[in-house]
Specification:
The protein is of the alpha/beta class. It has twelve helices and eleven strands. The radius of gyration is 19 Å and the shape is globular.
């Protein structure tokens, strides 16, 4: 099973595509997942050819991605053209770099609280998918929709994929985002396993809070959600899917307020099945806060004094996560 990295993990380094490839090879990865193309100096074919040639020289596979493909989503970038136009361009990039997937997202949990019902956003996402179906099939590139920023529960994303057509739409499974939505990542995997084509994997700490639960993303091995057992199940159910790390360790804990009388959680996820929520609650009740050393930075406005420390933390936590995956989980080909 290939061990990869989503480049968001090392977002503070300021590296271009070639530097990211060189670094990934140096730290023993098999794959680089470019979840956005900000490190690319150009999208011209000759530049993409040079990036692919360097990856081949290093023996690295490449995957590519983008953000929202839903024009009604709160995070959709209208300045880049229509959703279909953006996806068509990115499918060309995926084809040039020989990426078998194009990772994309619908939106975030904010879309569950808009004037347009969440089902309306799903219909808009499906419309984008259907408009590019023939191009996906012609190129052999699957859209890999992520359970992103607590937008979907696993069963909901599985239903979207079935509605679109699993012959050209699959899932990018994220292990950290389900916990923001009050879902055990084991439940997410059970729903999405038949459709998973790529991954964003990180560990998480969860513990009881007076309002419900606190959730904090941590490096591999630092959490308490059973990441060893989850990885074993992933290897069993998705043996040909890359195990790509998206390590995020500078975020403050997020509180889920499902014990409050006027809970924002239940307004956002009113139809959560009790049986599935109970499995999340079991993780919470058995959990304890993460007490390891970590720089926590709120938002994207990082004080200059913190920049070097944050960049170093990203590299340190990624590299020790890689060691954990190889030594404890038996993941990686290099």
């Amino acid at each position: 099973m290939k061990l990869g990295m989503d480049i968001f993990t090392v977002r503070s380094q300021g590296w271009d595509a070639f530097q990211l490839l060189d670094y990934s090879k140096r730290i023993g990865l098999d794959l680089v997942h470019f979840s956005d193309l900000s490190p690319f100096r150009s999208l011209e074919d000759d530049y993409l050819d040079r990036v692919k040639a360097r990856a081949d020289e290093l023996g690295l596979a490449i995957e590519v991605g983008m953000l929202s493909i839903c024009e009604s989503a709160t995070i959709f970038d209208h300045s880049m053209g229509s959703a279909v136009e953006q996806v068509r361009q990115m499918l060309h990039v995926a084809d040039k770099l020989q990426s078998p997937v194009l990772r994309c997202v619908q939106g975030s949990s904010a879309d569950r609280r808009t004037e347009l019902p969440f089902e309306g956003h799903i219909e808009n996402t499906l419309a984008t998918c259907r408009a590019v179906r023939s191009q996906c099939l012609d190129l052999g590139v699957k859209l890999a929709i992520e359970n992103h920023s607590a937008d979907f529960h696993g069963r909901e994303l599985a239903a979207l994929i079935e509605a679109a057509g699993p012959e050209y739409v699959g899932a990018c499974i994220d292990t950290g985002n389900p916990l923001w939505a009050g879902e055990s990542p084991f439940v997410t995997l059970e729903h999405l396993a038949p459709y998973v084509v790529t991954s964003h994997i990180r560990d998480t700490a969860v513990w009881p809070h007076k309002k419900g639960a606190a959730v904090q993303w941590v490096a591999m091995g630092d959490g308490n959600i059973g990441i060893r057992e989850w990885a074993a199940k992933f290897k069993e159910l998705c043996p040909n899917v890359p195990f790509s790390l998206e390590i995020i360790t500078a975020s403050a804990p997020r509180v889920l307020d499902y014990l409050d009388e006027d809970s924002a959680y239940w307004k956002t996820y009113p139809d959560t099945p009790a049986r599935e929520f109970a499995r999340f609650e079991k993780l919470v009740r058995c959990g304890e806060p993460f007490i390891g050393a970590s720089l926590t930075v709120a938002g994207r406005d990082v004080p200059p004094e913190y920049q070097a420390a944050l960049a170093a933390q990203q590299r340190i936590d990624l590299e020790r996560s890689i060691a954990f995956c190889k030594q404890e989980l038996g993941v990686g080909e290099s």
